[in-house]
Amino acid sequence: SPEDIHARLKAALDSAMSLELGPKGLLVFEDYAKGNASSSHLAQRKGIPVPQRPTLQPQEPGSATSTSVTVYWKVNPGDIIDCFQVYCMEDPHGAVSEEYRVTVKESYCVLEELEPDKTYKVWVMAVNYTGCSLPSERLAFTTAPSVPVIDTERCTVMWDSATLRWQEQISRQSYTLEYCRQYELEGEGLRSISGIKSCEQRVLLQPSENYLFYIKAVNEAGASEQSEAALISTKGTRFHLLKASAHSALELSVDQTTLHYPQDTYENTPLTDKCPSILGELLPARGHYYWETIVTGSTAYRLGVAYSTANRDNSLGENSLSWCLQCIPTPSGCRYQLLHNDVQTSVFVIEMPERVGTLLDYQLGRLSFYNAQRGQLIGTFSQRFTQPCHPALALEMPGSLEVSMVPEVPEFIKDS
Questions:
Q1: What is the DSSP letter of 271?
Q2: What single string gives the DSSP state of each residue in 26-63?
Q3: 334 pLDDT higher than 70
Q4: Can you name the residues that pair with 389 across neighbouring β-strands?
C-alpha cells in the first residue's frame, strides 16, 4: 500500500548518514517505490515537483582536516526535499577512481576517511518522493596536509635555545610550531609560531628546562592534527663542541663531545701552532654552568673559557679574553698552572685527576677547576665576566679529551 511504501522510505531516510560505494557514472535517483506503478500512485506522486538543483558552496578556508572536508549547499526555498545525496571523487580521476555517495537529511555533510593533501570533486543532488534533482555544479575540495614528524635526531639544543627540525612535506604548505614547558607553570599556555615556510625553526628557551614541542602542517584548506610530542631539554644533556671552531689539526667525534689530536698530525704541525683548540656552545651570561672533561687520554692540555671575540691566533689563556687551567708534563707526572693574558699562576696538586670539573659562575664572578673524583678544588679565577663565554679545550700533545655537561652541580661545589 502507499502507506507501507511511505513508512519504508521514511525509515530509510531517518537512518544515520551512510557512506557507500557508488557506480562510476552519475547515480540516478533510486525509485523507492519501484514496482508499484498503479495509476493512483502515479497520480499522487505527480502532485509533488522534483526539487531544483542545489547550489554547492565553495570550500571555506581552514575548514578541512587531513582526512575530511565539510560541504555546505543551498536549496530553492519552495522545494520539498526528503534527503540529499552527496558525491565525491578524487580529482584528477583515472580509470581506477571510485565515486562515493553520502545520504544526509541536513543541507551540509562531512566527507570523512579521505586522503591527506588531496583534491576531490564534490557535487550534490536533492531527493524527494517524486524524483531527484539535477546535480549541482561540481566543485573542488582539498584536505589538509598529513601530520608532520619532528626529527628529534636532527634537532639541536643550546642552553637558551633549540633548533627544531622536521621531515619535509609538500612545498606549497606552511607549518605551525607549538610548545610548552613539560610541567607548565600556572597561567602558562601553549605558545605557537605560525607561517613557518622551511622545515626548521629556532626557538629561544629558558636554561635548565624541559619542553614539549608539536608541529602542524597547514595549507589553504586547513591544518593537520598535532604531531607526536618531542621532548627537548636545555638541561645540558646534549652538550656539543662546535665543529666550525675546531683547529684543522683536531678530529671531532660524531656526537661532537670527544676531541682527538693524532700523532701523525702533531708531528706535521708547525711549532708555532702546537696548541690547537676548539670551543663549545656559547653559555648565556646568567646563572652558573658546570661541565667535566675526561683527561686520561692526554698528558698536556688546556681547559677553560673564552669570549667569542678572543683572538684565535693566540693559544688559549695567552690573551686577555681567555682563561684556562694548563696541564704541563714533568718527569714525575705533570703540574698545573692557571693561565690568563700570558700570566701564569702555579697550583699545587697532590693527585692527578681523571676528570676535571669546570664551574663558570657569572653571578659570583668566578671560574673554578676541580678534581671531579675527589671533589677537591684545583684553582680559581676571580673574574667579572662581561660577555657570554664559550667552554674551550686545547691539546698540546697527541691525545684526546672528552667533555660532558653535568645538569646538577655536585655537592662538593655547593659546599665550597
A1: G
A2: PPPPP-TTTT---HHHHHHHTTSPPPPPPEEPPPPTT-
A3: yes
A4: 283, 307
Q: Is 279 exposed, middle or buried (0-12, 13-18, 19+ CB in 10 A)?
A: buried
Q: Are 51 and 128 in contact (CB under 8 A)?
A: yes
Please tell me the distance from the alpha carbon of residue 158 to that of residue 239, in angstroms, as a whole number: 7
Check residue 312 and give left, alpha or beta (phi > 0: left; psi -120 to 50: alpha): alpha
Q: What cell was used for 116?
A: 591527506
C-beta of residue 28 within 8 angstroms of C-beta of residue 127: no
Amino acid at the residue 338: L
DSSP H or E run through 287: none
8 A C-beta contact, residue 65 and residue 49:
no
Which residues, 6 or more positions from 16, have their beta carbon under 8 angstroms from its beta carbon? Answer: none
Q: Considering Cα of 61, then 173, then 19, then 100, what sign does the dihedral take?
A: positive
262 burial level (CB within 10 Å; 0-12, 13-18, 19+): middle
Q: What is the distance between the alpha carbons of residues 36 and 169, in angstroms, rounded to a whole number? A: 56
Residues 217, 148: Cα–Cα separation, whole Å: 6
Grid cell locating 416: 665550597
Which residue in 384, 295, 302 sits closest to 344, CA to CA? 302
pLDDT in tens, 125-165: 999 988 999 999 999 999 999 999 999 888 878 777 889 99
CA separation for the pair 122, 55 (Å, rounded) = 12
Grid coordinates given for 248: 684543522
Report the 10 Å Cβ neighbour count for 112.
Answer: 13
| 394, 316 contact by CB (below 8 A) | yes
Taking alpha carbons only, the member of 24, 74, 76, 27 closest to residue 50 is: 76
pTM listed for this prediction: 0.56
pLDDT digits 0-9 by tens, 28-67? 444 433 433 444 454 455 578 999 999 999 999 999 999 9
Do 402 and 257 touch, CB atoms closer than 8 A? yes
